[in-house]
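Protein modeling request. Please complete all fields; requests missing the sequence field cannot be processed.
Requester role: graduate student
Desired output: 3D structure, token encoding
Chains: 1
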Amino acid sequence: MLASIPSPASGALGVGPLQINAYGLMIALGVVAATWLASRRLVAAHSGTSDDMQSIALWAVIGGVVGARLYHVVTDWELFRDDLGRIPLVWKGGLGIPGGLIGGLVAGVIVVRRRHLDAAAVLTAVAPAIPLAQSIGRWGNWWNQELYGRATSLPWALEISEGHLPAGAAAGTTFHPTFLYESVWTLALCGALLLIDRRAPLRPGRLFAMYLAGYFTGRFWIEGLRIDPAHEFGGLRLNQWVSLVVVAGAVSFLVVDRLRLGPVPADATASPAEEFA
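Delivered output (277 residues):
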């Protein structure tokens, strides 16, 4: 049994004379892993090439980072209004996943259309890859000692150094490691989506709706544990309201789509997961 999870002494990794920002490194590793998985799935489905996916990933990451930062800035404007120079400092943390998904989707769709690819097939290929990236990227919050949850004495509680403690918290207080909860949740979601695509493939694009429903379901309860400042309405944090809207929309789409079109025919084309296996 763990006594607690220690936090790193620094948010940087030393490689010889170089100091690598760990937050950025975790995001980069997540992108590499996601691009690899999505590329393999796209090629296996005969819906594009590895070069296609790499191009999509490049622009989707750029759009995603811009969208994620803008979402954070807009929803936490009070942190930036007196110091606009903080806005581009993304390596210090502060990326909103809802904005990142919107920005990444917009940029990705533009590339998909320019390359004359099937957007629904691309969405199916990337659906399990996005939570894989998230499961790795969330460890950047551990390195930055940020976005942790309420105080707890659970065996897996997170230690936080005095310089990162919330106001009024005593030294030695431990907290819910919400970064770890989300990392585990998204890794499990990646595996579940791959299993669904292998055992009961959906129509092209529908797996992405399942990703949205699955991710934001987890985000709702994890968000409820967090204690970082956030706008609240009706007893829920802003991102919890966003999660409810996205889950309701994704589930409604899947239900209506099933009622309208019926189940996938038994002789449907093999899914990317089936051919990849």
